[in-house]
Amino acid sequence: MISVVVPCYNAAKTLRLCLESVLAQTLRPDEIVVVDDASTDGSAAIAEELGCRVVRLPENRGVSAARNAGTDATTGDVVFFLDSDVALRPDAVANAMEILSRDPEVGCVHGVYDTEPLIDDGPVERYRILHAVYWRSRHLGEVNSVVFALAAIRRDVLLAVGRFDERLRDCEDVEYSSRLAVRTRIVLTDTVVGRHDDGSRLLPILTEQWRRALPLIPLALTTTRRGAAKPEHANSPAGILACALALASLAPAVIAPVFGLFHPLLLAVPAAFVAWFVLADPAIIRFVHRQRGPAFAAYFMTVHLAVHVVLVTGLAVGSLRLLSPARAT
User: What's domain 2-198's architecture?
Assistant: First the structure.
């Protein structure tokens, strides 16, 4: 028995497309449960119209609480978690179940996004989609982490690992993966595919990156203590280092004018690190070039740099918080 759980918060824009894709699966699930996380846009009515069971949360509690509530409300041997802004290809559920059926030691299967967004809202969204497709496609096969936007997991594994941490509204998948990977094998496959409607405005995306960066170092320390293997990285470590060095080397160029010592050569070092950042992962440039052409590849790398600046800054601030007196006590 297969249960699909769709956490939902103000998803009226995409929920119908999401649920219609589930109803059109070649291997149709036995039950579809939409967990409405106190939406205010009529999302629950859309789910009910399409014949899905709706679990309503009285207040907005985040995706972890919604997934837990969905698990509690279903009975399937396999729970397929699907985000409300993802529409599956018709064979996605069947392909996930085929992998689970073929190898009983695999407890979780998750998939990748299509290169085309579910609803094309412009270049920022295309950046997000292509970046997600690229990094996941590099890690196909057995992995140590899960992105629960489109993931099938055996119920007995879910029960053994425990509930999603409802204190986390960001990076909940990182924390859960650290517990999951020490108990079962996880497979990332490009046979489970969905079209994703991602963010389309730069400032909210940078804000989200900031929120997700802050807990990453503390979570990494926690997962290391648990003995979990390192999760797959979404960004090139060399690119992250190059961005960090570019920011650090920019300090003299900023401070020097205060003392009347500025010289244009002070900008040469950070410029060199930015060049290193661009060239740190040439495969991503080739990938984006093939998908969208040279002009978009240049745009992609510009946005990519901005995201990395926020990522590096967030990692630094999150690390400093570990050293604060309040944390120490």
Answer: Alpha-Beta Complex (3.90)
pLDDT at 219 over 90: no
Domain segments of the chain as ranges:
2-198, 237-328
Would strands 106-113 and 150-154 be described as parallel, antiparallel, or unpaired?
antiparallel
Rounded to the nearest 5 degrees, what angle is found at the Cα of 82, between the Cα atoms of 77 and 86?
150
The answer on pLDDT for 185 being more than 70 is yes
Whether 328 shows a pLDDT value over 90: the answer reads no
Query: How confident is the prediction for the chain on average, in pLDDT?
Result: 92
Rounded Cα distance, 243 and 308, in Å? 7
Amino acid identity, position 204: P
Residues 6 or more apart in contact with residue 174 via CB below 8 angstroms = 145, 216, 219, 223, 231
What is the sign, positive or negative, of the torsion defined by CA atoms of 162, 208, 314, 113? positive
How many other CB atoms sit within 10 Å of the CB of residue 159?
10
- How much is the pTM? 0.90
Least confident of 1-5, 103-107, 260-264: 260-264
Closest CA to 146 of 81, 198, 195: 81
Distance CA 317, CA 311 (A): 10
Phi, psi of 92 (to 5 degrees): -65, -50
| Assigned token pair, 66 | 């919604």
Residue 57 in tokens: 């949360």
Rounded to whole angstroms, the Cα distance separating 79 from 241 reads 38
Please check the confidence at residue 273 and state whether its pLDDT lies above 50: yes
User: Do 242 and 249 touch, CB atoms closer than 8 A?
Assistant: no
